[in-house]
Write a structure and sequence with these properties.
The protein has about 260 residues and is an alpha+beta fold. The protein contains seven helices and 14 strands. The strands form three sheets. A six-stranded mixed beta sheet has the order 3-4-2-1-14-13. Strands 5-6-7-8-12-9 form a six-stranded mixed beta sheet. The chain has a two-stranded antiparallel sheet with strand order 10-11. It binds one DNA strand of 18 nucleotides through loops.
DNA sequence: ATGCCCGGAACGTCCGGA
């Protein structure tokens, strides 16, 4: 079972890339998408279904939007992260697939930190921790994957000093991410590559960041204990970031051992 | 310095069809 996450930065613009990714013989069984930047009804589901995948999405006009694409049927559990009924941003989709609970999430960026955007980010992370605690208490195998907009440590970005005060790096942001892990979740890439440094999943469009490898590692796959026991591989696939008219993010994937 | 690039929305212009 291969599960991937990819912030496509506009599903409409990136549809050819998505189809190319899904057509490859290395295609994932489950793909979590972020930043659809389109309404739910405008998701090009027929193009995706034609490749043998199921699609579920929660979108909105212009901003955000997440989706789950799967070879096996998807049973949606939640279309919003619980804990704030006034939050209408399309950032969370949780579903059951083949006995597995999976969530696609697009965690708020949080910049600029002196605005209400930063407390919104931290509040969203607290709600995510509450949700993870609930899933852990239910003792079910689950994966929370997506664009976390968090560089967990200083080796996860090219210029820690320059970015010190950024919402992706600040101590409060990292502490909130650690609280999530400390509930008992395993960040897949770090678990299998504990000494990896300067391996990224995002490169800004500006200032030749991709060419200079000035990146950030902000896309993560978090596993429940039962799934962490099944983790056999996790990699960042840099290839799609090099394609023409690429997203600024590239896919991160993991492979889970099949259970007997 | 705070843009650099890119996307969408809105708008403007051009083009093809009627």
């Amino acid at each position: 079972m291969k599960i991937a996450t990819w912030n496509v930065n506009s599903l409409k613009v990136r549809l050819p890339h998505l189809l190319r990714y899904l057509e490859a013989d290395t295609a994932p069984d489950i793909l979590l998408l972020q930043e659809l930047k389109c309404q739910t009804d405008d998701v090009p589901r027929a193009d995706i279904e034609a490749l043998g995948y199921h699609v579920e999405a929660v979108g909105q006009k212009t901003y955000h939007g997440v989706a789950i694409i799967s070879k096996q049927p998807i049973s949606v559990v939640l279309r919003h992260l619980p804990g704030d009924e006034t939050d209408e941003q399309a950032r969370y989709l949780e579903a059951d697939i083949a006995g597995l609970r999976v969530a696609a999430l697009y965690l708020p960026n949080g910049n600029p930190v002196e605005t209400e955007k930063y407390p919104y980010k931290l509040g969203w992370m607290a709600r995510l921790a509450d949700r993870a605690a609930t899933l852990l208490a239910e003792d079910r195998p689950f994966l929370l994957g997506g664009d976390y907009n968090i560089c967990p440590t200083d080796v996860d970005l090219y210029d820690p000093v320059g970015w010190r005060d950024d919402a992706l790096v600040r101590p409060e942001s990292r502490a909130a991410f650690r609280r999530l892990l400390n509930l008992g979740l395993t960040e897949a890439f770090h678990a299998l590559h504990p000494h990896a440094a300067h391996v990224y999943s995002f490169w800004d469009y500006q200032a030749g960041a991709w060419q200079r490898d000035n990146g950030l590692r902000i896309d993560h796959l978090l596993l429940s204990p039962a799934l962490a026991d099944r983790l056999e591989a996790c990699e960042i696939d840099k290839e799609p970031r090099g394609w023409e008219r690429a997203s600024d993010h590239t896919p991160v994937w993991c492979r889970l051992r099949e259970v007997a």
